[in-house]
Amino acid sequence: MMFLKFQYIAVLTILQCIARAAVITDYLIGKQLLNKRESYTAQDYAVSTLPSLDGIPTEQIPQMFAGYVDIDQSIDEKYFFFRFNKTQASNNNRLIFWYNGGPGCSSMDGALLESGPLFVNQEGKLEYKKGTWLETGDLVYVDQPAGTGFSETEQPDSELNKIADDMLTFFEKYFALFPEDLGKEIYLGGESYAGQYIPYFGARILTQAADKYNLKGLIMINGYIYPDVQNLSIFDYALDNKLITDAQYNSRKVQQMIAACNTTIAQTQEEYASIFKTMEQTGEYESTDGSDSNKVEDDDCSSILEALLDMTLDKSAPTDQQCLNQYDFSLRDSYPACGMNWPVEEPALNTFLNEQSVYADLHLDGSQKWTECADAPYNALVNHNSYPAFFKLPYILSKVKIMLMVGENDLVCNIYGMQDMVNKLTWGSKSTPGYSNGVNWGDLTIADNSTVFGQAKYEDGLWLAKIAGASHMVPYDHAVASRAAIDLFFDDYSLDGTTYVAKSYGDN
């Protein structure tokens, strides 16, 4: 989920403080030991119990590991991770790292509402998640950048380049704990603002640690990869989905905003042409121009979403139905939340993760209360010296493959914007941008099921899949469909004419 507001409780209640004080002595020794994490082994991170876990059939309970690793002790910076294996002795050769977006939104959304094997329902109870990606590989969910979720720091990162450095540090610490994972195929996946993180991480691995880590590909769901181009598409997408009228679209205000964003895109592409060329060829670049502009996205384009939400506001509707849900336009929400009160399980997940017993189960010291999305990482990430991740894609595609997946009900990172972005991308052996003529959509299904989940296309290492009826959080709505799409990515499919038939795992 993208962090566009996120109201959250900043101060604990007196009762919560009392409850925490009652258990603080239980964590003191643990916190001291966590400062010497290098001496720990994987088994020290093993998770053997969670509330309501005993309600899940034993054969569906994964092996789990969780806890902190140090990133920078000088600023008390540590990352929290939550790992799942399908079996007690994993023999899966794939390892998928998952990152949620924001910036500042916790990957525990991914772990416990989306692609992970466990799902926290509205009653706050754990269920087995049908369609889990655990059928395709071992999963590691990382709260990052520091300050996000359970991860902590005294100094949040201000640049994507620095966040990429931190992820390399996390990899060093993680693989020291799980050295058996070093030989596995590594994939980086996630959603939303992870469309910035993942290419930055991928390029950093490929340029600085390709001999250490067997990176094989990137998976981005509703990725916020080229923000200006993607934001430009919002009015067109809203018009074609009848969210606004022709008169609203053709209004002076809307046309002026479209023109301003188009001008911004043209100017930045011209201004940064040599920089982008370097990134395309080498995968890396860091500005030193000293300017205080956010080089990843411009206000002329990012203001479009807010304008659209204002245009579609219905003050005559019930309070909880006045605004479009920006993450699923088939739903509505209160204003100014406009999608922030969704998914409906989010309050239960918050309660679940802040249970004192869960702190202990996940080897947490209890010093940081979990929130879905935190202010500090969001406000700190100014990107004065970092550029849109889009310009790293040609370099990455010269080394590994990429899957772009889009839920067709998402407004903020919609399919039009993704296609417009791809139409500006030149990759592989091609000399012109976009997919070649003759590369067409094929239906996406799974074995033993005639349901058409969406469509997909492929050329020269780049997959693009659109999932019908899915939101910004595709695995939350349609986990089986999202897994079918990554089965294409993993070459676990067959062709029936022009229809892609992904594997079936018996939980569809």
TrEMBL record:
GO biological process, one term: proteolysis
Its EC number(s): 3.4.16.-
Top-level class of the enzyme under EC nomenclature: hydrolase
Localisation: Golgi apparatus, trans-Golgi network membrane
Membrane keyword on record: yes
Annotated GO MF terms: serine-type carboxypeptidase activity
Secretion signal, residue range per the UniProt entry: 1-21
Pfam families reported for this sequence: Peptidase_S10 (PF00450)
UniProt protein name: Carboxypeptidase
Alphabetical UniProt keywords: Apoptosis, Carboxypeptidase, Glycoprotein, Golgi apparatus, Hydrolase, Membrane, Protease, Signal, Transmembrane, Transmembrane helix
PANTHER family from the UniProt entry: PHEROMONE-PROCESSING CARBOXYPEPTIDASE KEX1, SERINE PROTEASE FAMILY S10 SERINE CARBOXYPEPTIDASE
Catalytic activity: Preferential release of a C-terminal arginine or lysine residue
